[in-house]
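re: ur question from yesterday

yeah so i grabbed the chain u mentioned. its 282 aa long if i counted rite. heres the sequnce exactly as i have it in my notes:
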Amino acid sequence: MTAIPIMRVEGLKKRYGPVHAVDGVTFEIPQGVCFGLLGPNGAGKTTTIEMMEGIVTPTEGKVIFQGHPVGEDFRKKVGIQFQSTSLPEFITVKETLELFRSFYPNPRSMEQIIEICSLDDILKRDNQKLSGGQRQRMLLALAIVSRPEIVFLDEPTTGLDPQARRNFWDLIGKIKAEGTTIVLTTHYMDEAEQLCDLIAIMDHGKILELDEPHKLLHKHFEGALVRVPATDSAAAEEIQSANLDLTLKELLGRGVNLEGLSIHKPDLEDLFIKLTGSSLRV
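ran it thru and got these structure tokens back, copy pasting raw so excuse formatting
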């Protein structure tokens, strides 16, 4: 990626007593990309994100935004959609949007917010009566009311049905198309592959890999993955094959029963498991 960085994390550390939650991470986020930070539970990604957002103070290191350390001015330029957020009760979606617009000197127009986040059908609905997908659209709208230059989305589609997730992806695409930088955490590998221009995979407080998804896959895998199911006499086996014909001949030569064998192109889930030794949904 050649774009000028909008944010840089330098030697970021966070300790809680003897626990090193984040252990010296450094990376840059170019302007206008969707940057995915992935990791199993306990990897340190949430703490890293909270330090980037200015919510948690680093033990060491710094966060640079547009060439300057994160300060009060940063809060005017950032939008955050937390994983869990309470909405005002007993008022409608439209009333909530009007309330939040009043907090900022130059908010987006109501029409623009409604169009970007597809809220027209729920404007008169009470916040308490929103479905999961409607609620996430509403929270995204509140995160972009102030015209932020960078938006943090913390597992925004967790718990949504497949259709609602894909609808939400479309909304993220609209925001990114405006040139807004997005920082995303997610538990869905297909989501990261669909939305992210760059991904960082984190574990034990450190960044294991950072690059464009297709470059990471090319770096770690060659050819296809062949999975041979377990039998009474042999354990399950996974083979990285650059030559399928040769691999299958070798398996047959070993007397391996190919029934149930599967072949697939490596994806981010495979990469994640290879690097961290576990599935993302831990």
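noticed a couple things. DSSP finds ten helices and 13 strands in the chain. also Residues 222-265 form one domain.
anyway ttyl
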